[in-house]
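Troubleshooting log. The previous structure file for this entry was overwritten by mistake, so regenerating from the original sequence record. Sequence copied from the archived sheet and checked twice against the printout by T.R.
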Amino acid sequence: DAMHRAITVDGFCRYIGEVFRKKLGGHWDMSFQNESNVEAGPFLTGLNSGENKIYPYQLIKKALQGKSGNLLKTELESNL
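Regenerated output below.
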């Protein structure tokens, strides 16, 4: 059902976000200025790599759409 999918996606976002945070430094933040925008969700900022922000939800969405199997690894390595 929809609630189960939402909980699963939330768990993926948290896990991927924490992996990136532990490797790249930084901290979690959230913007409430435009809540209708997907980017209103939690994101990582203050990263050691200098990247402004990383949105775990966007990464997971791209990974599932691309079906290449290595997008997350490539994204992480490009920010190291």
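The first strand starts at residue 27 and ends at 30. Archived copy saved in two places this time.
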